[in-house]
Design goal:
The chain is of the alpha+beta class. The protein is built from nine helices and five strands. Strands 1, 2, 3, 4 and 5 form a five-stranded mixed sheet that branches. A hairpin with a 2-residue loop joins strand 3 and strand 4. Helix 2 packs antiparallel against helix 4. The longest helix has about 35 residues. It is elongated, with a radius of gyration of 23 Å. About 25% of the residues are buried. The mean pLDDT is about 95.
């Protein structure tokens, strides 16, 4: 694409030895000019940044564009790096054991059923939120339009909601590993364990074995907690904005152009 070639040619003027140029695909439009976000990478780590247009850059307009490009791409980066694999967890890992339990009427299985059903609901919501943001990216790709304020807000809200959902999953598992361990024992006692696929068995055995890992991960997650999920998401979105505002100031110091 001619636009990409022109932008990368301009960006290479500010490239240092052993660095690679990464051009982010979607621009921000300021004063009828599209500005693109550039990262300079060394050993796959960002070491510098720049904002370019196809035409002569206005310094103030480029700075205004940078303030919009930064939160969008940093939130989008979190979603890509942290959420892609988690969103791809197979739903059958939850649905199959639920279906097996629904074939029998055993009160002892109810605690395990409730936990796995909750995990399924969280995973379904996680996948939905992740997929909705992928639709935003696809629409930007197909339309060729620049990033708009609604896209930035969607990226931040998505990152915050995925973090809250991940905490829900990890926290539930860390608090209820005993429930899961007892559920496996009851499933074995009732000769239901062998009705599960091998992938299901391994999945739940690993969850039980990783109890301490889950507990540590839940403690390390810097999530603002609230009884109402919507409020919790909003508070974590605000926290993400504050964190990015501070890190943006650091990135400004590494801005090579303009």
């Amino acid at each position: 694409m001619l636009t990409n070639w022109l932008l990368k040619r301009k960006a290479r003027r500010y490239k240092q030895t052993f660095e690679k140029v990464h051009l982010y695909p979607y621009p921000v439009r300021v004063a009828e000019t599209d500005y693109y976000y550039i990262e300079y990478l060394r050993s796959k780590q960002p070491v510098g940044y720049a904002v370019f247009s196809r035409h002569e850059e206005n310094t103030l307009d480029a700075a205004a564009a940078h303030k919009q490009l930064y939160p969008f791409y940093h939130a989008a980066g979190f979603i890509k790096e942290e959420a892609r694999m988690r969103a791809g967890i197979q739903l059958d890992l939850f649905r199959k054991p639920l279906a097996v339990m629904e074939e029998t009427d055993q009160p002892d299985l109810q605690p395990g059923y409730r936990l796995i059903n909750h995990l399924l609901k969280v995973q379904l919501k996680y996948k939905q939120v992740y997929d909705e943001f992928q639709q935003v990216l696809a629409e930007l790709e197909d339309s060729g339009r620049p990033i708009e304020p609604d896209d930035i807000e969607k990226a931040v809200q998505t990152a915050a909601e995925l973090e809250v959902l991940q905490f829900d999953m990890v926290d539930s598992l860390s608090r209820e590993t005993k429930t899961l361990r007892e559920w496996i024992a009851i499933m074995n006692r009732l000769d239901l364990w062998e009705k599960l696929k091998r992938a299901n068995q391994v999945f739940y055995q690993q969850l039980v074995q990783n109890e301490s890992v889950m507990r540590d991960e839940a403690k390390k997650m810097q999530v603002v907690k609230h009884d109402r999920r919507e409020k919790m998401i909003q508070q974590n979105a605000d926290k993400l904005r504050s964190r990015m505002k501070r890190s943006f100031q650091d990135e400004e110091k590494e801005l090579r152009y303009p």
